[in-house]
Write a structure and sequence with these properties.
Length: 278
């Protein structure tokens, strides 16, 4: 027969178990939430549209169409040089962050990326920071690289003299392509090449308004090499300047993309800066 004290003790144990289970479920829920949260570096998120970075940083300082994707670069964006590689759908697949390059011989002040504040830290100190961020170190044959799995992404610390010089964030596809994790290699792809750009004059109405700006356009190129469509991704802020760049791309000559050795449709992204002489 149970005594009252036994019942009180059992009741206390039940309450303790219930609290422990609740805490466990909350902890599990937090881990799931972290796994569902895209990894960010320098304020840019893997899996997001690269145009979100444009909203944050403005027009890029460089855009280049490569066989691995379209490179977008911002110089000294909030204290960092940010280099993003996006796919043909404009989705961010990898992000590179580093200290801005010196200007006129003077180095910029170091601004750490909020997500991984390890730039120019020693490899040991960076390793402690990565572990505290939930990172799991991957085996690396070189001592100039320290690679970490963080949730479902890969973060690579590039070292020089045992200090972190650059941070590279990769989604699983990019990490597999670069050999950091196992995965199926994509078929060989060669991006379209610009053979001859059609020259356009500075728009007269833009000159009258003293309008300037940087415009980025996406050119859809058929397997024949013909231009199928041109759209503005980043506007200069002036319709005449945007129109001139679109006309230039429509009348330019391209070599088509090649998928697994055969001509195929592809995209070419072009950036042009329109400036007037003083």
């Amino acid at each position: 027969m149970w005594r009252l004290d036994d019942a009180k003790q059992m009741s206390a144990r039940v309450r303790w178990i219930a609290v422990a289970l609740a805490l466990g479920m909350l902890s599990l829920g937090a881990q799931t939430a972290r796994a569902d949260t895209p990894l960010t570096l320098g304020g840019v998120s893997l899996g997001a549209s690269v145009l979100d970075a444009v909203k944050s940083f403005g027009a890029p300082g460089l855009v280049a169409t490569t066989d691995d994707g379209v490179e977008w670069r911002w110089y000294d964006a909030r204290g960092l040089d940010i280099d993003v590689l996006a796919d043909s759908s404009l989705i961010v697949r990898q992000i590179l962050a580093r200290r801005p390059q010196p200007l006129s011989g003077f180095a910029s002040a170091l601004v750490q990326p909020r997500e991984f504040p390890v730039l120019e830290r020693s490899a040991d100190e960076a390793a402690r920071t990565m572990r505290s961020s939930g990172g799991v170190r991957l085996a690396e044959p070189e001592d100039t690289i320290s690679a970490w799995r963080v949730v479902v992404a890969i973060v690579v610390l590039e070292l020089r003299n045992d200090n972190v010089q650059r941070i590279l964030a990769l989604d699983t596809g990019a990490a597999a392509r670069l050999g950091y994790i196992a995965g199926v290699a994509p078929p060989p792809y060669r991006a379209p090449r610009l053979l001859e750009q059609y020259a356009v004059d500075y728009p007269k109405r833009a000159i009258e308004r003293r309008a300037e700006g940087t415009v980025v356009v996406k050119v859809l190129i058929a397997s024949s090499g013909n231009v199928k469509d041109v759209t503005v991704l980043v506007s200069s802020g002036d319709a005449d300047i945007d129109g001139s760049e679109m006309l230039s791309m429509r009348r330019s000559k391209f070599l088509p993309a090649h998928c697994d050795g055969q001509p195929c449709d592809g995209i070419y992204v072009d950036r042009e800066e329109y400036t007037l002489s003083p």
